[in-house]
Amino acid sequence: MSDEAIVAELRKLFPVVEHWTYLYNGSIHPCARPVAEAMSSFLQQWQDGGEAAFFPAFEAFGRLKEKFARLVHAKARNIVITESTTAGINIAAHLLRPRIGQNVVVTDLAFMSNTYPWLAGQAGAEAEVRFVESSNGKIRLEDMAARIDEHTAAVTLCAVTVGSGFRFDLSAVHQITGRYNVPLVVDGAQALGVIDIDVNDPPLDFLATTAGKWLMGPTGIGFLYVDDRYLKSTPPTVGWLSAANVADWDVQHCQLHDDAMRFQGGIPNLIGVVGALAGLELLDQIGREFVERRVHHLTTYLIEKLEAIGVAIWTPRVDSERAGIVFFNVPNHESLHSRLKDRRIYCGSFLGGIRCDPAFYNTIEELDRFLGVVESHVAEQRRGVRDGNE
Ligand SMILES: Cc1ncc(COP(=O)(O)O)c(C=O)c1O
User: Fold this and answer.
1) Fewer beta carbons within 10 Å, N or C terminal of the chain?
2) 340 CA distance to ligand 1 centroid (A)?
3) pLDDT confidence of 384, banded at 50, 70, 90?
4) Residue 342, pLDDT above cutoff 90
């Protein structure tokens, strides 16, 4: 079967294609039929059976940890189910709490949730937060190396950055952080589901992400990989699920799990859990390698055509330096964005530009529809400038 034939079949799983040319998959991934069905079935069981619905859903919680662990080449005992990427990074920031005189190294291509936990002071008000500045949408490793020293308590970065879509070479980053044995906190929200991240190679201390983007699940569910060496640490928050033996009902002594379960608190968002599990199962069925190949094919096409149109592409061109995001700047980007929306084309608009994140189920025809609108907008802007100068 050709990739096109496979895609034609897969598109049937995504009702969004009947309503939109949907190209913002790294923001909120549209809900696939199997994900919707899993969640509706949980709702039905809850309606009909009350608490009885929670037992199978709680089993799904266990399976979700197993599935996510396999995706990142980890063990379920190292996985926390969180509510978001943000929640995961906050746990990491709490555990790594920098002391006076220490610093944390972040980048200016980070998402707010990567820097705020350190800047807001909950991870240590005295710590210096050092920014590595990007150039042309990339972070140069030598610039990062220059910021790290023996006082660095953590380096935190997005494996694939949210704006330019720059993809870090994590092994090369680790060669730098490894010099001082600095813990590495990675945000995988724009990476996992498209590219492979193995928490053992290079060894990561924390890897946080959400179910709601390339993992095709609902928002409200996230994941955190916690390396073994933090599994004895005191969690920022604890609850009954953190207890080593819930059945003891021991309210007078707090004996925590000796695995990442100690970072769970109360009953999780189980409707989200069953949806997230269905998303990961779908990803398994489709095959992550297929997704990566297909996304690469679509983003490469997009970049070539945008170059021909002559917009300022912020995303790096080199294959190994990008994943599923293509970002470009264009004059009057907001008017282009609303024109795209009028044509039922959905993409992102921020930082003076347009972000387009095609997923495996998108087609070249859809990209051409998008590119056609971009091309007319750019031609109009140029005419406007020329006419204005006459
Ligand atoms: C790289 C990255 N990190 C974190 C987030 C926020 O994720 P969450 O809402 O799960 O905390 C986003 C959302 O766009 C993102 O792109």
Assistant:
1) C
2) 24
3) confident
4) yes
CATH 3.50.50.60 fits 3-30+287-389, yes or no: no
Q: Return the H-helix or E-strand segment holding 285.
A: helix 270-286
Which residues neighbour 61 within 8 Å (Cβ) at sequence distance 6 or greater?
81, 268, 270, 273
35-284 shares the fold of 3-30+287-389: no
CA dihedral 9, 322, 31, 285 (to 10 degrees): 50
Span 42-69, average pLDDT: 96
Cβ–ligand 1 distance for 222 under 6 Å, the answer yes
Q: How many CB atoms lie within 10 A of CB 372?
A: 14
The residues spanned by each domain of the chain are 3-30+287-389, 35-284
Distances (CA, A) of 75 to 43, 72, 78, 228: 30, 9, 6, 10
Please give the full DSSP string across 59-85, using - where no structure is assigned. Answer: HHHHHHHHHHHHHTT--GGGEEEES-H
CA distance 109 to 133: 8
Give the tokens for residue 35. Answer: 């994900």
The protein residue with its alpha carbon nearest to ligand 1, atom 13, reads 27
Residue-level pLDDT at 385: 77
R_g of the chain, CA atoms, integer Å: 22
Residue nearest to atom 7 of ligand 1 (CA): 85
Is residue 388 within a helix (H) or strand (E), and if so which, with residue range?
A: helix 364-389
* Confidence bin at 123 (pLDDT 50/70/90): low
Residue 22 forms beta bridges with which residues?
Answer: 346
CATH topology of domain 35-284: Aspartate Aminotransferase; domain 2 (3.40.640)
Q: pLDDT at position 390, please?
A: 45
pLDDT in tens, 155-173: 999 999 999 999 999 999 9
* Cα–Cα dist 203/199, whole Å: 5
